[in-house]
Amino acid sequence: MAESPFKAEIERVQKEYSEKMTPGAIVYIPGSSVVNKTGSWRVFMPEFNRDKCTRCYLCYIYCPEPSIYIDEEGYPVFDYDYCKGCGICANECPVGAITMVRETK
Question: What is the pTM of this model?
Fold first, then answer.
């Protein structure tokens, strides 16, 4: 396969910018991402209806953060400090116990 004619230029630009920029989004200490609360940039948030919930745990399983944990009674609890409002939990809920509502801060 032929090498890209732009490879040298791309490498030059990457080197130039990597020397000027400070590293970001790097977790230096394991478990330290708990300190970075990411829920403040959410636009939509999950609203939970406990009466509809069948405790299937699909919301818990599919949450990418995870910002959902299970309480003593087996119901999901949403940690809004880390929930980014992606809506996966509402999409996966088979009984509609979770709906996404506009964030009101």
Answer: 0.67
